[in-house]
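Technical note accompanying the year-one report. For the benefit of new consortium partners, we illustrate the data format agreed upon in the data management plan: each record pairs a sequence with a structure-token string. No post-processing was applied to the example shown here.
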Amino acid sequence: MNITALLPFFQLVLTFGNICVLAYALFKFLNRPHDTLEDRVNAHEVEIADIKKSLLQGNDRFREQDDTNEVLLHSVLALIEFEIQFCLVEHKEMSSGLTKAKEDLNNYLSKR
């Protein structure tokens, strides 16, 4: 068997291999925009999920603050009523500011 007889066969195999490598490179090159777009979409989906989670936690914090504000408002109302009752029992005149504060707080609470 002569090597010169095998030479065209090896050239054919190498040419076919080069064509396969070039076809693979072309395929990867053409799919690059799709792959980068898919990576960006995946990154945005993760970011959106993080933002939604953060918003839910923020909404929970606002709910807690609303509950705290409600308790504080009722406590202030109770203190104002106690002070008014104290003035009535001790036969002292209530200040106009105390009466106005009670009216304003009652109006505010009735609007909520």
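Partners are asked to follow this layout when depositing records. Residues 2 and 103 are 114 Å apart (CA to CA).
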